[in-house]
Design the sequence.
């Protein structure tokens, strides 16, 4: 089947030029650009006055963070022009190990968007945590043969690279031996340590928060991923990178993106739009999101409107606003008038389905699980800072005579992180300040990076109810008030992803996030966002895992009470 | 061993910036750039006031055309900053088949220059010729496993690609299946046919003679190789490509380069210098010759001064003139004060050596072999155009009563192309005009692309003497006058390469080229250059092979006499 897109203004990502051209497509591939006419094609689509550019590529995303299955993620993003993403299934791998990677590969098969996979490099994130799996080099190696597996995902354990840690270096070596890419993640690393990290063959970085930080890396040969997601938003600080001589070494990524944010604002298109609104060239943004993403990952035959390239194309009503009318994926129209054309979702059955649907292995909880033995001395307490992932280490005197120490007047709530992968019954228990709950409890199975069950409450009974509900539904976010579930968002797939559409997931998520105000949380706090990072012991300062409190800076387990 | 290059102005090929920096090298690899000091290194080389840039890469060369073995080629080019070449052993493969490829791989092992190999894609060049070998896809496949083999060499049989020729498409498919690059060669191809050629996955082109021709290809995704060799010189016409938005898709190549030209003018350095003399940026030239060449071929870890990159570095006294003082190859100094440090030449013994040293399989020649049966009618004659590879088809009346038709007054000489690979005794025989010999004979075993023995003479006896001498010494260029060899350049390796140094080869070549004037050739004709292409039936108009005269435009064998 030969398709001719006629009279469009084609964005040439090799030169940045825009030329009126006809584009001939055969069997999913662009076979010609230039003076073709109706007689060359079976189907002619006259796009006079419209623009044609390559489909967008998100260079780094954790699809699990959208809480959507890959097919639902695709349904949400295709209309925004995304035809490929490079996904690191780091979250599901922390829960389900290699089954999680296999699931994401299977769940993204034959959908109208290419989901390339980077193998999670750091599972678990640290030794101070109990993840669902431990992935060593030998667990990963068998995946390099998959054509969609491009390499080793963000190597956030940069101290291990700098100190030549044997296990991590073996993962790096194996990726290189397979001719693959290694993504970086090394915020603030500079000078000698950065040199050592880059010399190990780390291709890129997506953690830069300033253009100076990025320029140092570009000069040293790394690609820079300009990140603009739901939580981390670096675009404004990175705007200088849209100019020569740096722009050609940058690509665009979202990293983490919530479903409502996709629906309301878009995906990669929204980054290009925002850069343009800030005075930068739309064409430069398109180059970053297409051919440069392909170059960054060594992908051949995608990311350009040129002979031999995949016919992953966007037809835009308007270039400046990236107003997308049609999307073609390997020559098939997958979005028309801004609406995604229906496609079949991959069906996953058998043991793989079982594995991701039965990821909760933990005992039933009772209020007793959250009772602390009264103790004198200063209590080491996690201090949440609104809108930030870092926490403070605070100290409080606890009065155990009332409510086993819970004191909503001083915003001292119980915090529990319950191991949920191996039925160990391990619970890290303590206090948290800065969430603002006046009653009830909130709980979630999205709890980076090990995704144990995290519960915060003003009542141990409600904490047990919240935790048991999540255990019962196999994962999710829950709000409990006066012994009753008042809102829930089921995340049955590994406790991380919904099996619903983006709209439905966004709506459930919205309800859960609003329900927290009914249990007293002030409007300026988004507790689920903070809660998701309270157990991640690679971000300072004080965090809670199933093994207890962790001083992140010292990388040690620390006692609840300072005697 | 840690080496510090201190206080140099480093050319950053990623950004085009020049920064004063210290460069730390460990075990052949750059491990740091920036604030390193003496305490970091075992050896410190203070290069204050000098420039540091990556070693140059020639993106397309036939080493055989230098008439030098790879080690001698390296000795000639290292001082000009060349640390890598991408070589297509097309000439020796036409003589020795896969043994020729194996020989070039072995002969370039462990020399202080990386010789990457592209597999000759078109052996023989056409079906109207008798080469030493026929290379099919299956002959090439086993070579893709060699790390230095980057892909399939210049696919000059572009009509076969455009017409989906099965054998050629199989070669393309196998190269892609192995994840390799395919070099292009398609002069003047444009529009639809160019689209078809590029869509087949042809990476680049080095045959562009105008910037317009090149820009069409850049827009369609090809890399452009700006060629400036000894014969074909395209730089001046390609100067617009040194500017944005095209320069980042171009690299520099020599294709064919003679030893005297290397000695007198240099190699890739001379192209950058010439571009600079014509007002273009030296840094742009360096970018083309380094990181961009690496990108064009998908080479990782070469072509930049950055952590993790091979320490293939040049120390320049002066940037504008590319005055090279030191050259480092994987951290070892291989050139100092402009002099190449001695290294061992690869020793090749056994059957491979035998194969390339005994490439002549043909009977002894006598004057009788060059006698034509008298014939009336117009004689189809090759008309040489000075300084060009294309020829004219001329017609002469021949008077066979004197000298069997040779008529030096009308510059009508005998031309013979003698099959020399398979002992068939085939001789293509006819007349040539435009060489200017008044007596004697000249002969050569460098005769593109099949490299049969080509002889031009004013005397059949001298033609036999010249041809037999070349047969005796296993290849070379010879000038005969009055029954005596007056100059010769032995090319014992496959009849293509000298076993001497570049200086010696250049001197022998000079003597041979001058000796032609003693047999009457006018000073404005360089007969060996013309002779080398008289038997190449892919360049118009009339050519001679062992099978007789070929009308190149019609791609047919044509009779000597028009009846």
Sequence:
């Amino acid at each position: 089947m030969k398709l001719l897109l006629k009279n469009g203004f084609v964005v040439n990502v090799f030169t940045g030029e825009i030329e009126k051209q006809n584009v001939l497509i055969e069997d999913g591939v662009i076979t010609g650009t230039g003076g073709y006419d109706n007689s060359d094609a079976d189907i002619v689509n006259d796009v006079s006055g419209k623009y044609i550019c390559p489909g967008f590529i998100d260079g780094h995303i954790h699809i699990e963070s959208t809480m959507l299955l890959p097919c639902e993620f695709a349904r949400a993003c295709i209309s925004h022009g995304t035809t490929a993403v490079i996904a690191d299934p780091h979250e599901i791998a922390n829960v389900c190990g290699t089954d999680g990677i296999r699931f994401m590969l299977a769940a993204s098969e034959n959908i109208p968007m290419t989901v390339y996979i980077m193998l999670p490099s750091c599972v678990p994130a640290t030794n101070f945590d109990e993840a669902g799996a431990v992935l060593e080099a030998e667990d990963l190696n068998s995946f390099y043969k998959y054509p969609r597996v491009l390499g080793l995902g963000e190597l956030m354990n940069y101290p291990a690279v700098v100190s030549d840690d044997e296990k991590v270096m073996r993962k790096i070596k194996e990726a290189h031996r397979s001719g693959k890419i290694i993504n970086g993640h090394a915020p603030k690393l500079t000078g000698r340590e950065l040199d050592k990290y880059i010399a190990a063959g780390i291709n890129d970085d997506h953690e830069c928060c300033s253009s100076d930080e990025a320029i140092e890396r570009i000069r040293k040969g790394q690609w820079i991923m300009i990140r603009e997601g739901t939580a981390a938003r670096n675009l404004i600080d990175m705007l200088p990178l849209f100019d020569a001589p740096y722009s050609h070494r940058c690509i665009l990524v979202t990293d983490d993106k919530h479903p409502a944010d996709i629906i309301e604002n878009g995906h990669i298109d929204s980054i290009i739009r925002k850069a343009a609104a800030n005075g930068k060239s739309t064409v430069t943004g398109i180059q970053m999101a297409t051919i440069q993403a392909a170059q960054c990952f060594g992908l051949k035959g995608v990311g350009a409107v040129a002979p031999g390239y995949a016919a992953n194309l966007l037809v835009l009503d308007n270039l400046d606003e990236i107003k997308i009318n049609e999307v073609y994926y390997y020559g098939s129209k997958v979005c028309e008038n801004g609406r995604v054309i229906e496609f079949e979702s991959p069906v996953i059955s058998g043991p793989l389905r079982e594995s991701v649907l039965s990821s909760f292995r933990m005992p039933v909880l009772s209020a007793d699980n959250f009772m602390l033995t009264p103790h004198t001395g200063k209590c080491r307490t996690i201090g949440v800072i609104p809108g930030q992932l870092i926490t403070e280490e605070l100290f409080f005197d606890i009065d155990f005579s009332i409510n086993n120490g819970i004191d909503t007047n001083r915003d001292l709530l119980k915090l529990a992180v319950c191991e949920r992968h191996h039925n160990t019954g391990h619970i890290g228990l303590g206090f948290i300040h800065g969430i603002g709950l006046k009653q009830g409890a909130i709980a979630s199975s999205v709890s980076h990076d090990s995704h144990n069950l995290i519960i915060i409450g003003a009542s141990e009974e409600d904490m047990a109810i919240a935790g048991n509900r999540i255990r019962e539904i196999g994962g999710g976010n829950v709000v409990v008030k006066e012994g009753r579930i008042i809102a829930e968002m089921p995340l049955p797939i590994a406790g991380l992803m919904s099996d619903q559409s983006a709209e439905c997931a966004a709506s459930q998520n919205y309800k859960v996030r609003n329900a927290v105000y009914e249990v007293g949380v002030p409007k300026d706090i988004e507790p689920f966002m903070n809660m998701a990072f309270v157990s991640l012991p690679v971000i300072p300062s004080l965090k809670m895992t199933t093994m207890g409190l962790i001083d992140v800076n010292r990388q040690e387990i620390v006692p609840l009470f300072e005697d």
Notes: Chain A is about 25% helix and 30% strand. Chain A touches chain B through 43 residues (CB under 8 Å). The two ends of chain A are 77 Å apart (CA to CA). The longest helix of chain A spans residues 502-518.
